[in-house]
Amino acid sequence: MKKKIRLIWQLYPSYLVVVFISLLIVSIYTSNYIQQFFLNNMEKDLMIRSLLIKYQILQYLNPLDPERIDQFCKTVGASAETRITVILPDGIVIGDSKEDPAKMENHKNRPEILTALEGKSGSSTRKSSTLKMKMMYVSLPLFLDNRVVSVVRVSIPITSIISTIEVVQSRVMLVGFFIAVLASVISLFMSRRISRPIEEMRKGAMKFAQGELSHRLHEPSILELANLASVMNRTAFELEDRIATVKNQRNEYEAVLSSMTEGVVGVDRDQRIITINKAALSMLDADLATTPRGSIYEVSRNSHLNKLIETAIETGERRQEDVSFFQNGNERILNIKCTVLKNPEDVNIGVLIVLNDVTQLRRLENMRRDFAANVSHEIKTPLTAIKGFVETLRFGGLESAEDAERFLTIIDKHVDRLTAIIDDLMHLSRIERKDEIQQIDRKIHTIEDLIQSSIQHCRGIANERNINITYTCAQDLTAQIDRTMMEQAVVNLLENAIKYSEKESDVEMEAELAGDKILIHIQDHGIGIEEKHH
């Protein structure tokens, strides 16, 4: 993996490279320019000197006087601090301000001489074989009758010029060094000026990533970075607002789920739990703290429920069934509704499971069915008897007044029995209707008053059967009850005790406080209730 480098160490070296290359180019160009400038000035100076000497030497060429020429060269050369040399077209030196011409070698092949022999001014810079130092030479042809009769050459050492150039170049390099140092400092400052805001934005972005969306980035003076910081701040603000909205929606969603009495479980196609509320955990006898948000199998061990979920996922159809659960030896019946979850593309992504505890409802339904069967039996018995006695009366029973009276008495008793059964049904209907359509009006009442009122209500039927009713109850025993409904319930129990007791027997009532409840006992000495109805 390629090593990552901070921005400043990518910008700063590049600035330094540009600065040093620029300074190097400028220094080289300046040095060359200065050197060329001095050499050009020296060449021009030598050209002027050679022109001045040229016209004075012409007088010694016609006729040719080598001695006078050599003497002239030495005299003028010494005063002008210039080496003067006169060369014939064949390269023989006839005059020189520094050396004896007779001892000097042939100069015909010198580059500046060759140029001058062609009738043009020549120049060259090289090391002198005679003086053993670097010299600058300028030569001019001397004409007589339009032909070159000799060449005058002037030269001076360029050692002093080179020394001057080197001094100038060293100063240029020194100035360049200081400029480079200054440029390095400025480059570092500029690099930091660019990298520091970016580093600050990086730190701000890290805070955004850590959830500190309320943090705001400083907008630097660099326009592009300021625009970037502004965009990041706006993005953080919008993201913070959206997250707050999502959190509020999630809190509302969780509040709704938590307050529901129905259990709600959401699973994906792999039957992993997406969501589950407290009611579902309670119904499935699971604990949120110990239940992982994993598979539904880890929450529910009920094979019927799991099969129901699998079927809904596979078929994509809504499923609803009652499923029995056993907790601590008690049966709980849950009505399970499985509805397929689909995304906007109508693709099945899971199942929503709604659980309703219908244990009490199913028990009540069973009780209603049993009650209906018992009532039907209770009604059918007197109706059958009435029908039999009516048929007896119709087919000859009226001939005997005594038998007719006896049959009518029996029919009257059965009618009273039917009336009593119907009255009980109407009482139950009123109680249920009152429970459904209005709130129970509970007030503080004395239990002894309730018992006395109930006994008084049943006094007539008790006297008919010579049944003695007794009770025991504390005078200060009170309860918050609906007096009418509670009295009706006690009267029903008391009437049953009287009806199914032997004549001239006793019925005892007792009210007692048991913890935070009040128990009312009614005990008779009759035939009792069959075991199957307990």
SSE topology:
Layout: H1 8-57, H2 66-80, E1 83-87, E2 93-96, H3 111-117, E3 122-127, E4 134-144, E5 147-157, H4 159-209, H5 223-259, E6 263-268, E7 273-276, H6 278-283, H7 303-315, E8 319-327, E9 330-342, E10 348-357, H8 359-394, H9 401-437, E11 443-446, H10 447-457, H11 459-464, E12 468-472, E13 478-481, H12 483-499, E14 506-514, E15 517-523
Parallel strand pairs: 12-14
Antiparallel strand pairs: 1-2, 1-5, 3-4, 4-5, 6-7, 6-10, 8-9, 9-10, 11-13, 14-15
Helix pairs in contact: 1-4, 4-5, 8-9, 10-12
Describe this structure in words.
It is rod-shaped, with a radius of gyration of 65 Å. It folds into four domains: 1-210, PAS domain (Beta-Lactamase, 2-Layer Sandwich); 260-357, Beta-Lactamase (2-Layer Sandwich); 358-438, Orthogonal Bundle (Helix Hairpins); 439-534, Histidine kinase-like ATPase, C-terminal domain (Heat Shock Protein 90). The mean pLDDT is 81. The relative contact order is 0.04. The protein is α+β, with helices and mostly antiparallel strands and 534 residues long. The two termini are 82 Å apart. It has twelve helices and 15 strands. The strands form four sheets. Strands 2-1-5-4-3 form a five-stranded antiparallel beta sheet, with helices on both faces. Strands 7-6-10-9-8 form a five-stranded antiparallel beta sheet, sandwiched between helices. It has a three-stranded mixed beta sheet with strand order 12-14-15.
